[in-house]
Amino acid sequence: MIEQTFIMVKPDGLQRALVGEIIRRFENKGLKLVGLKLLALDRKMAEIHYEQLKDKPFFSSLLDFITSNPVVAMVWEADNAVYIGRKLVGPTRPNEADPGTIRGDFCINTQFNVIHASDSVENAKREIAIFFAPSELVRYERSIMHWLGLDL
Ligand code: DAT
Ligand code: MG
Questions:
Q1: What is the span of the domain harbouring residue 49?
Q2: How far is the CA of 40 from the centre of ligand 2 (A)?
Q3: What's the pLDDT score for residue 151?
Q4: Fewest C-beta atoms under 10 Å: which of 18, 78, 92, 134?
C-alpha cells in the first residue's frame, strides 16, 4: 500500500548539520522524496502539529524547542512509508534507539532527538496537510523504482 509519511528535521538537526545525512538515509532505503521545505515554525503551527500532546508536562518546552530555529519538512513516499520512517528514525527515547537508527546514532536526549516521523497513516495525512499545500507535493517517476522492486 503506497503511503506518504511526514518527516521533519528538528532545530537541533539543522544546528548540527544533519539534514544531508538524514535525507541520505531515506534516499538509500529507497523512499521517494515528494515534498521538501525549509521553514521557521511559528507557535500556532507547532501547537497544531503537536496537538495530541497538549496535556503533557513537556508540551510548552517542546514548543519552545521546535520553534527555536528552522526545521526541514519533508514528505517521503513508499509502500509502508509510515512504518519504514519510524524504523529509520528509532524510538522516542534515544537511549532506547538502537545504533543504525537516526536517533540511535545521533541523539542522547529525548527532547533534542533530531527528527520527527509520523506514527500512523492518519497522523501522516494530518501533518502533511499542516505543512504542505497539495500543489507542493510533486508527482514524478523514477526509473530506479523498478530495481528497488517498487514500481511506484
Ligand atoms: P515521537 O517524536 O517519537 O513521535 P512523541 O510523539 O511521543 O514522540 O513526542 C513528540 C516529541 O515530544 C518527542 O519527539 C520528544 C518530545 N517528548 C516526548 N516525550 C517526552 C518526555 N517524556 N520528555 C520530554 N520530551 C518528550
Ligand atoms: Mg509522535
A1: 2-145
A2: 19
A3: 72
A4: 134
The answer to whether residue 111 is domain-embedded is yes
Residue 4 in 3-state DSSP?
A: strand
CA–CA gap between residue 98 and residue 127 (Å, rounded):
26
Q: Among candidates 73, 85, 72, 71, which has minimal Cα distance to 31?
A: 85
Residue whose entry in the numeric block shows the C-alpha cell 535525507: 23
Model-wide pTM > 0.70: yes
CA–CA dist 68, 107 (Å, integer)? 18
pLDDT tens-digit series, residues 34-88: 999 999 999 999 999 999 999 999 999 999 999 999 999 999 999 999 999 999 9
**Cell numbers 523498478: residue:** 146
In angstroms, rounded to a whole number, what is the distance separating the alpha carbons of residues 88 and 93?
Answer: 14
**Residue 152 binned pLDDT confidence (cut-offs 50, 70, 90):** low
Which residue matches cell numbers 514548543? 63
Q: Specify the DSSP element, H or E, that contains 104.
A: helix 102-106
pLDDT reading at 147 higher than 90: no
DSSP 8-class letter at 99: B
Whether 105 is covered by a domain: the verdict is yes
Say how many domains are in the chain. Answer: 1
